[in-house]
Write a structure and sequence with these properties.
This is B box-type domain-containing protein. GO terms for molecular function: ubiquitin protein ligase activity. It comes from Mytilus galloprovincialis. This protein is α+β, with helices and mostly antiparallel strands. The protein folds into 2 domains: 112 residues; 281 residues, 6 Propeller (Neuraminidase), CATH 2.120.10.30. The chain is built from 8 helices and 30 strands. It starts with 25 loop residues before the first strand and ends with a strand.
Length: 541
């Protein structure tokens, strides 16, 4: 049924219908068609077309041209007068007064302005970050261009020098051979000439008396070439063409962060479960096997232990803005390590157990919970700094829906406030897993389930300047994966390549972290009997 439209301006009604150009009994005005027409044309044409029937029209006779709109239709936002309220097209609709609708729109506008005000700094910060990334990208491009040009000149220079050296050696050898052989050829020619003369003389018949007294050369007096000349061919060099790939000599471009090894620190521990960088070259480290929790300093030469906390098994660590440290022990309570060293209960999640924990930029605490380390039901809870629950993200109760959360092992938040976590159905070290990202409402953004069956994510961290996610995984060899904000793998490198294939690590780094300056930490996990001390390595991007 056609809908009656609001009248907010005066208009002039034509003398005849604008459809049939005959009837002077004008009944309707259609806003979409911008036509005035009679009752007959409305029934014959306007209501028979599905498209035209949906247009908004007004009854000229009932509404007139100067009635004041006093109410508004909630469904479509049309303002109507009191004469039109009880028409068939409006009597079943929800109506509000103009004042109420106006107040509601004012409040809506204020909320919109408030949201804009709160988001402007975020976009300004994003713009600054993008400009920073652009500057870094140009710096990196300039560095690459300079070094490629330098490498090109060096290779050309070295190639010319080496080629000249080979050519000089070959030419010297050739001159020596040519000289010796020519000397021998001269000797042979002289002997040949002498033999020819002797043959000519012998061709004449000698008297018997001279023939009896003639002395002929013996074999010992005949010519024999120098032994060196015979062997000279065997001793001559020949050129072997060496096939090669130019990238193996020149180098090549690699995608992803250019992590360069800065320092390797040896420790007295068997391995590390978690490393969390602090300010001033400090970090909190934990070793589950040794039940060790320490605050350490990274010096230019060695790593020193500043604080040894009470013997405790810690799975994950996060630090709040006031310096208090949160500890996940895979138990029902989230623990708080105060600055004085006391360990207190911060929040109870029983019967669930705590796994991954993280403190975001707003000082909210994101906690991954699971009913069991072997899988089952899991959820992610967001607390404020006082331990009060702000949000909870759980699996959809619909059995047909995908189960996103079973055991969130590690958690980080990205620059867009999305929550990224390692999701594994079993906490055993031999099981594959995925990186899952959900938005602020708990809806799935992406899940990196396509990295292969050998993808065993152990830890993850965020490169703050770019939002890239760095993941350590272990299988037959340990790798670093770099994912973009859509979960796509854009870079992968083995830890062996980071260390130039030196055997510096044991089973592999299970913990990774990147501090605010972009320094990456890899903490070793080693329980073998051949090397008792695990290591921590630092890399600069």
């Amino acid at each position: 049924m056609a809908q009656e439209a609001k009248v907010d301006t005066e208009f002039t009604i034509p003398s005849v219908c604008q459809i049939c150009d005959t009837s002077s009994n004008i009944k309707w005005m259609c806003f979409e068609c911008d036509l005035f027409f009679c009752l007959q044309c409305e029934s014959k044409f306007h209501t028979k077309s599905k498209t035209l029937a949906a247009h908004s029209k007004i009854d000229i006779e009932k509404c007139g041209t100067k009635n004041i709109a006093e109410v508004i239709r909630k469904e479509c936002g049309q303002t109507i007068c009191t004469n039109c309220v009880m028409t068939n097209s409006h009597k079943d609709h929800t109506l509000n007064s103009i004042e109420e609708a106006y107040d509601g729109k004012v409040q809506e506008m204020k909320k919109f302005q408030k949201r804009i005000q709160s988001e402007i700094p975020l976009y300004q910060k994003t713009e600054d970050n993008l400009k920073g990334v652009l500057a870094e990208a140009f710096k990196q491009y300039s560095y690459i261009k300079e070094h490629i040009t330098w490498k090109e000149k060096e290779i050309i220079k070295e190639t010319k020098h080496y080629a000249k050296k080979l050519l000089d050696t070959a030419e010297t050898e050739w001159k020596t051979i040519e000289q010796k052989i020519n000397q021998e050829v001269t000797v042979v020619n002289n002997i040949t000439e002498n033999f020819e003369k002797e043959r000519e003389i012998r061709g004449h018949t000698l008297p018997v008396s001279k023939l009896l007294t003639k002395t002929f050369p013996t074999i010992d007096n005949t010519y024999s070439p120098e032994e060196e000349v015979h062997q000279i061919k065997l001793l001559q060099h020949y050129f072997t063409f060496q096939s090669f790939k130019i990238k193996d000599i020149f180098g090549y471009l690699s995608k992803g962060p250019g992590f360069k090894l800065v320092k390797t620190y040896e420790t007295s521990l068997r391995g590390f479960t978690k490393i969390l960088p602090l300010n001033n070259n400090q970090a909190i480290i934990s070793c589950w096997e040794d039940e060790v929790l320490q605050k350490v300093n990274f010096g230019k030469k060695n790593m020193t232990v500043e604080t040894n906390y009470p013997k405790i098994k810690v799975y994950d660590i996060a630090v709040m803005k006031n310096g208090d440290i949160l500890l996940s022990k895979q138990e029902g309570e989230l623990k708080l390590l105060c600055e004085k060293g006391a360990i207190e209960s911060f929040h109870s999640f029983s019967p669930f157990k705590t796994f991954g924990i993280h403190v975001n930029n707003e000082n909210d605490i994101v906690v991954g919970l699971a009913s069991s380390s072997d899988g089952g039901d899991g959820k992610i809870v967001v607390l404020d700094s006082n331990g009060i629950v702000k949000r909870t993200f759980e699996n959809d109760k619909d059995k047909d829906k995908l189960k996103l959360i079973s055991c969130p092992l590690r958690i980080v938040t990205n620059v867009d406030n999305s929550i990224c976590f390692i999701e594994k159905s079993n906490n055993g070290f031999s099981n594959s897993g995925a990186i899952v990202a959900i938005d602020e409402e708990g809806k799935l953004k992406w899940a990196s389930t396509r990295l292969g069956s050998s993808f065993h994510p152990a830890d993850l961290s965020i490169i703050l300047s770019s939002g890239l996610i760095v993941v350590t995984s272990y299988s037959y060899r340990c790798n670093l994966h770099v994912l973009n904000q859509k979960g796509k793998s854009i870079f992968e490198i083995s830890v062996a390549e980071l260390f130039n294939n030196q055997a510096l690590f044991g089973f592999g780094p299970l913990s990774t972290a990147i501090d605010s300056e972009g320094m990456m930490f890899l903490a070793d996990y080693s329980t073998d009997n051949y090397r008792e001390r695990a290591k921590i390595a630092t890399f600069k991007n």
